[in-house]
Design a protein that fits this description.
Order of helices and strands: HHEEEEHHHEEEHEHEHEHEE
Distance between the termini: 36 Å
Number of helices: 9
Helix content: 40-55%
Radius of gyration: 26 Å
Shape: globular
């Protein structure tokens, strides 16, 4: 509901600014248009199935397409898109939980109101999250300026400086990466089942998983997903973080790329019963309407 309200506000703001008509495009769809347009000459063929994983700050969204034509690029969506709350902001929460385990709840409560805590969170967010590669022998140091934290034995926390080993950072990352991996697996399995039911000649083949978005630029996320599925390429396109913006612009350019069909993630309808007439509906299932005292179908 919040997302719908937010979108409504943005549309009203655009119209107020004189931008009309306002055209809406799904973020993963925009990212797919940009990514596949610029990688269409990289061993991609008509009939190939690809998965687009848009890993951002709050959510991870997946969408899958089959390439139906080149020049211009045409795509058709294969199965309903999936998503989950597995974005990189969850890493910040897990880091904060680690700090709490080390300094204790009482010190953390005091720390949250200090500038040093904000600077430490920014350091984790902008440096450690983006550079961690999964190596256990890596070390990182996070500073809490003027925090007056009590030192912790074994040099984990000394003079307001927290030492993070690669193993500690791995424990922050891995549960979230497991969630992302599960979302990718679900999308791949849905594609294979659909194409097998259609007796597609490439039913079991998934050409690639493309990672885009801010979290999608994580080298550790890429390597983790690749390790889980060595038979499928996991690719981080150039400018993956800006793929959504560029794809949205591209969607309105002629002869560039187009989505020819989509699959609804949800649908709704209204059930209705009509008067049953023996001459017209003989043999069909009928129900007795106790209020109107007649048969319905």
């Amino acid at each position: 509901m919040v997302a719908i309200v937010d979108l409504t506000i943005k549309i009203k703001a655009a119209r107020k600014a004189g931008i009309s008509p306002v055209i809406i495009i799904k973020e993963p769809e925009a990212a797919a248009l940009y990514t596949l347009h610029y990688l269409k000459d990289k061993a991609l063929n008509v009939g190939d199935a690809v998965v687009l994983c848009d890993a951002g700050g709050g959510t991870v969204d997946l969408i899958s397409y089959e390439i139906t034509q080149f020049n211009p690029l045409q795509l058709k969506e294969l199965v309903p898109g999936k998503g989950g709350l597995a974005g990189s902001l969850m890493l910040n929460k897990r880091f904060e939980a680690l700090v709490k385990d080390i300094v204790g709840e009482e010190q953390l409560i005091k720390l949250r109101g200090q500038k040093g805590f904000r600077l430490a969170m920014e350091q984790f967010d902008q440096t450690i999250k983006t550079t961690y590669t999964g190596k256990r022998d890596e070390e990182f140091f996070v500073n809490f300026p003027q925090a007056d934290l009590k030192d912790v034995p074994e040099s984990i926390l000394t003079s307001n400086c927290l030492k993070l080993t690669g193993e500690m950072v791995k424990e922050i990352f891995d549960p979230l990466l497991d969630n992302v991996n599960q979302l990718v697996d679900e999308q791949i399995n849905m594609i294979r089942l659909k194409r097998m039911s259609e007796q597609h000649p490439k039913a079991n083949a998934i050409k690639a998983v493309f990672l885009v978005g801010g979290f999608g630029s994580s080298l550790y996320l890429r390597d983790y997903l690749q390790e889980q599925r060595p038979d499928i390429q996991v690719i981080q396109p150039h400018d993956a973080w800006a793929a959504i913006l560029k794809g949205a612009v591209m969607s309105q350019l002629p002869e560039k790329a187009v989505i020819t069909s989509t699959v609804a993630t949800n649908h709704y309808g209204v059930s209705a019963l009509y008067t049953y007439r023996e001459t017209e509906h003989a043999g069909q299932t009928k129900l007795w309407d106790k209020y109107e005292k007649l048969w319905r179908r």
